Structures are given as C-alpha cells and as structure tokens.
UniProtKB/TrEMBL annotation:
Protein name listed in UniProt: DNA-binding transcriptional regulator, MerR family
Organism, as annotated: Fodinibius salinus
Keyword DNA-binding: yes
Keyword field: DNA-binding
Annotated InterPro entries: DNA-bd_dom_put_sf, MerR-type_HTH_dom, MerR_fam
One GO molecular-function entry: DNA-binding transcription factor activity
CDD domains hit by this protein: HTH_MlrA-like_sg2
Keyword Transferase included in the entry's annotation: no
Span of domain HTH merR-type: 5-75
Gene3D superfamilies in the cross-refs: 1.10.1660.10
Amino acid sequence: MKKLYYSIGEVSDITEVEAHVLRYWETVFDELNPQKNKAGNRTYKEEDIETILRLKELIQDKKYSTEGAQQVLAQGDEQENETVPISVKKDLKEIRVFLNNLLEKL
C-alpha cells in the first residue's frame, strides 16, 4: 500500500528501527532529513525509508560505524552489488506490516 508520506511510527514498524534511533540518525546522516508537517510531526517519503533500510543494513547487520556508513553512502556504489535492491526490501517489509496488522484484526 503505497503512500506519499509516512509517520515515524509507520516507518519504525516497516523498518524495524526504533523511533529514537531514527531521530538520532537524522542528526548524524545528511541523507536522512524528513520534512515536518504543520504540527511538527516528521513525514517520511519512500526515499527516506529506503535510506533508513540501507543504514540499518550497514549499521546493524554489517556492523559499520556511523562514520563508515557515512563513507559508504557517500560512495553510493556498494548498493549496486546487492542481490535484492533496497526498494524491493522496503516494499516487502511494508507488505509484511500490512499483513501482520490484518492478521491481528482477525
């Protein structure tokens, strides 16, 4: 279910990254800069979620430091070697969250 904007809670569910970690990453990585609405709430776009999934992979899965992850993002070429593109991973995670929510309602 594609949307134009996602709340921090939705992004946290999709990416399985806690909201406080997302807020911290915003301070460290220039690539992650969600807009805020009139109420001051963060609004994430598809590109932001893809960046978060990339950061999660680098920092939590591959155990890069934040400085190392910044260097990899600046180079931008390591993502091309992946077997499953980040955008596909994001879509699959979003579908999983939707199905889990649907299952809870049954």
